[in-house]
Records
---
Amino acid sequence: MAKRASLLLLLLLLLLLVDDGGCWDESMLRRPLSTGNGLCAQILRPLGYPCEEQTVQTKDGFLLSVQHIPHGRGGLRGSVEDAHPVFLQHGLFQGGDTWFVNSVDESLGFILADHGFDVWVGNVRGTHWSPGHVEFSVHDKAFWDWSWEELAEYDLVSMISYVYATTHSKVFFVGHSQGTIMALSAFTMPDAVEMIEAAALLCPISYLDHITSRFVLRAVSLHLDQLLITLGLHQLNFRSDMGIQILDLLCDGHMDCNNMLASITGENCCFNMTRMDYYLEYEPHPSSTKNLNHLFQMIRKGTFARYDYGLWGNFKRYGTLKPPAFNLANIPKSLPIWMAYGGNDALADPTDVKRTIKGLKSKPVLLYNDSYGHIDFIMSVNAKDDVYANLLSFFRSRSWLSSY
Ligand SMILES: *[C@@H]1O[C@H](CO)[C@@H](O)[C@H](O)[C@H]1NC(C)=O
Ligand SMILES: *[C@@H]1O[C@H](CO)[C@@H](O)[C@H](O)[C@H]1NC(C)=O
């Protein structure tokens, strides 16, 4: 307890020491978000894409929005039954908008729809698109009592089951970053993986102990996760006053804040800086402090395991002193996997990616780009040629879609 109290004091002191000016432009985060009427109405329909909002309820009562884009601008190619479903799962502090925030020729979501795929877009609990729960509101502590483990077991499994049941078809999966942690843990479960036709993982993560992100490493060494829990802050929202204070705290004098994105994700070769204002209309999305804590546990311990509740908490919950690990070897060899990773990625470090590959029974198809950072894989203005062309041919090779 004494340790906790002194940590709390330390944080308060640090917050007081932070000068208000900050070293980067906060005003963009203070602007209201564009979330009215949902993602379809905000981005997709105005650009000429058919898009329906659907709601999926998880076993633990969260109401998730899923967008359905049945075809691209050119209309249907072949019959509805022919269009193969693909499900897109965004990463941490992001939402389904991630797949659509560049131009229609650059963004993966649009590209897939225009290539005749039946596109479904996931939005995990707590994002601006999925703020609902049957019982709790975002102001309740109970609303934020989860980490990526629940995002995998409940959100991902519920959303994929919904698409599987609606389309009567196995589903192609695309995930980025935290979306790949969710997939790699969920796909160790037979019931989940049997719904998947093939999986494309952008910046795949199951281990995080070689992370090089200065920003994240500083947050880990400051015990930011534990401090926030001690302070009773269960929602982590960088668009709130507290969130902005935290960013200031992590920046202050310790890194080049003019390039904050690079200090978090690694240097991105092909990020469109002049589009930053537009990105900030939608992102970052909130997540839970418990999720941050779980991710930091992975960084500290080098494990790919369930949430660590401490010895007694683990014993009560799991019957073991340590949280059970997810075993990548339980992902069936028959699941075709494609992975793309980058030499400048400060979050999905190539060393950790290689450990993930080693842990799998199957041999994934690999795409590596030396100059790509973490965000390039979804937002690079060249990703269509550098990454998505390869991803599309992987999917085509896995089905009769070769006729496209
Ligand atoms: C970068 O973003 C700006 C502003 O949205 C846009 O006008 C420009 O076309 C984009 N550049 C590329 C290469 O996509
Ligand atoms: C990696 O990305 C860069 C930047 O777009 C591109 O010029 C290069 O051709 C890519 N390399 C490979 C091997 O695809």
---
Amino acid sequence: MSLSLPNYHDVQQAAQTLRGVVHRTPVLTSQTLNGRLDAEVYFKCENLQRVGAFKYRGAYNAIARLSEAERKAGVVTYSSGNHGQAIARAARALGVTATIVMPLDAPRAKRNAAASYGARIIPYDRNTEDRVQVAQGLADAEGLTLIPPFDHPDVIAGQGTAALELFEDVGGLDALFVPLGGGGLLAGSLLAAHAIAPECLVYGVEPLAGNDGQQSFRKGERVHIDPPSSIADGALTQCLGEYTFPIIKQYAHDILAVEDGKLIHAMQFFAERMKIVVEPTGCLGAAAVIREVVPVRGMRIGVILSGGNVDLASYAACLAHEP
Ligand SMILES: *Cc1c(COP(=O)(O)O)cnc(C)c1O
């Protein structure tokens, strides 16, 4: 670890940087759900954030904090998902050149979206090349700064601003449920929650098939798993980060894991009852609450809906899925 762990002050600073840059996303409630659970549930709608996910927060904050020389040289990342789109869009907003390393067989929609933000796309072969090595190679050769999807202090601090806004808007909470992939969103949320509402129990929620975070939390050290398979494509990480894990280990109340069926059920609930599109990964925290994976009755609950990017064909298939 060459940088220091971020703290609450960094989240507050990120909030300053992001003011007027990110949407202050709405907090929605459902009387139907509250009645059924006998709880007050507040959904922080990052599915309505720029580029359709909270990732814009961390990406913009990380690029904004680079030196003049680093900005001039440009940034590189290896995510073709929400982080890649967020880097492409944030880099353009800050006048920085972005390079996105993407698999040769990445969906055209993803390539086009990144290219439409002016990013340079570098294809690599998933079967023979390692994307991190490809990105690091470009960084070394061209003097670019690599901005990873979760394991970076400035990314974590930026992601923490979503929970910060939620606490500002609704006040104290008994529990907060956060989708968990590599842990940038959870670690940032924990920094905000611990400072603002230290009594609030914060849960990370993963896909059951990819519960490396749960295993790591229980064991007290990072556990590396084989590539998982789940519809939660934004949370298929194999290991928590060097920077995210210590924060999660210290402050998280527990890590929960939910199977894909619960995510589909939650997507249907959001479409039918709340009229919002939430991607499978974005439903992780909500699914744990809706299906009462832990007790929620009588509590004030916060849930981060982390994203809304899902291609229409798979969205339609999820909605049509019989319970
Ligand atoms: C990236 C992502 C996550 C997971 O975030 P981490 O910081 O990797 O834990 C959750 N939901 C969505 C929609 C994402 O794009």
---
Amino acid sequence: MIVKPASIKIDSISSPLFKEKEIELLVARLDLIHPIVSGNKLFKLHYFIEAAKSANKSTIVTLGGAYSNHLAATAYHCRSVGLKSIGLVRGELPAKISHTLLTCEDNGMQLIFLDRKEYPFINEDWIAKLLNTSPAQFAFIPEGGYHPLGANGASMIMTELNELNATHICTAVGTATTLAGIISSSNDDTKIIAVPVLKGMTDIEKRISFLLNNKPYNKPLILNEYHFGGYAKKSEPLIQFMNDFYKDYSIPTDFVYTGKMMFAIIEKIKTDYFPQRSRILCLHTGGLQGNASLPEHTLVF
Ligand SMILES: *Cc1c(COP(=O)(O)O)cnc(C)c1O
């Protein structure tokens, strides 16, 4: 395994606010696992890569947008275990290729740009035709690792974190794969708090059921009002918050996921959502490379 659950650093942060509210706040720094492909993505990929290797596949094919942390992590993971990787990118080849996609290329990923109209039809047979090969030749990973294998990989994040005995665990939600993994592997009496970064995400419970193979699970608390307009949308208050959070605690966040999650949790602490003596564990799932797409000097870090 290329990431080790034991290597997750925990920051305990303090402030007059937490003291007043009698709250403990811990941040699990998955962003420090690797400087570029930090975070939850490498965990989610683990069992896909294992399955591909045991089936003797030479190539991994996956998909994502131009700023996809999942594509960057897949490229890196494949290179480190000696597999070829192909990334199907949503949207025509742009005039200027994104920082994220350059990272993918640096890690040996072959990029194929697809029309948005084709994108919904992508499956293994479709890809086999596109690559003029047979499905036996490659392993396909759904976007964001959205599959029970991805959730199973994400569950390893909790291996050592359960010992912290948090009352609440908070995570940002994209596909809900990480969330499902955390739900399936955390202590039963821990409340899981989900902060969706997409607008109007109403199918989280359906997603979790799929990801956990319809096993019963403890429902998370979903904070639906912190998407800041939708996926990768931002506004001045979010940027201001990220800069303040960095100044106060020296922890950088990203504007797509972890900035929104931390904003939500700090606001909920201020408004007494958490009972006194809560011990809140926030998962810093990484994603910092995505900040490179912001105009210079937007962030103080
Ligand atoms: C992808 C991602 C998430 C969301 O993970 P899902 O498993 O898709 O819900 C959260 N944080 C960061 C930094 C990510 O890159």
